Amino acid sequence: MALKRCENGHYFDPAKHTSCPSCGVQNINFEPTRKKEDLTTPRAGDPGRDDGKTVSLIHKKAGIDPVVGWLVCVSGPDRGRDYALHSEKNFIGRGDEMDVCIAGDEAVSRENHAVLSFNPKNNQFKLLPGEGRGLVYLNGEEVDAPKVLNGRDTVELGQTKLMFVPLCGDQFKWED
Predict the structure, then answer these.
(1) Is the dihedral of CA 75, 86, 112, 123 positive or negative?
(2) Residue 92 in contact with residue 99, Cβ under 8 Å?
(3) For the segment 2-14, what is each residue's pLDDT rounded down to a tens digit?
(4) What mean pLDDT is predicted for residues 49-71?
(5) 51: number of CA atoms within 13 Å, CB side?
(6) How far apart, in Å, are the Cα atoms of 145 and each of 138, 142, 166, 174?
(7) Phi, psi at 147, each rounded to 5°
(8) Of the candidates 105, 112, 104, 92, the residue with the CA atom closest to the CA atom of residue 155
(9) Distance CA 39, CA 28 (A)
């Protein structure tokens, strides 16, 4: 094995490395990371594309994942902000990867503080406790099992109070 010496005096095996691993790669330019909104083209879950991401039943049939309701922050650090809800499970937490990201409230668990689901077969919304450390409340009562959500119900987690505003239900349903 013949070792090669780099200009900084390090020795390395050219059979394993194209340049000195101690010095790192010099003058390398990376393309900027794509913005989250740019990832929709081509859209994950489009026909003919399997990127491994699970999509909702409505999204699979319609090609889009339409809004089924909203959470509106009525009290807490993100007061006035709204969060769109989509079919099936919506994971709520502080982390960027959450469907409902309550970034301003450090008392909200980073991942899966709670789950809000919409069942497109029966047009019903439910609130479930998450896997995070913090508790979740529905109209002041602790949620320790799935609870049905109704319009204008209040969801509390951390220092945040959210009002639930449904779009889908008895009076409206996205058609297949």
Answers:
(1) positive
(2) yes
(3) 888 888 888 877 7
(4) 69
(5) 11
(6) 11, 9, 21, 28
(7) -125, 140
(8) 92
(9) 24
Looking at the predicted structure, is the pLDDT value of residue 71 above 50?
A: yes
Taking a C-beta distance cutoff of 8 angstroms, is the pair 126, 153 a contact? no
The string over 40-57, giving b where at least 16 C-beta atoms fall within 10 Å of a residue's C-beta and e elsewhere, is eeeeebeeeeeeeeebbe
pLDDT exceeds cutoff 70 at 84: yes
Residues contacting residue 60 through CB under 8 Å, at least 6 positions apart: 45
Element (H, E) at 62: helix 57-62
**pLDDT value, residue 39:** 47
Q: Angle at CA 106, nearest 5°, toward 102 and 112? A: 55
Handedness of CA 77, 80, 84, 89 (dihedral sign): positive
For 124-151, write each residue's pLDDT tens digit: 999 999 998 899 999 999 999 999 999 9
Long-range contacts of 168-175 (CB under 8 A, 24+ apart): 168/68, 168/69, 168/118, 168/120, 168/123, 169/123, 170/123, 173/120, 173/123, 174/58, 174/62, 174/66, 174/68, 174/87, 174/120
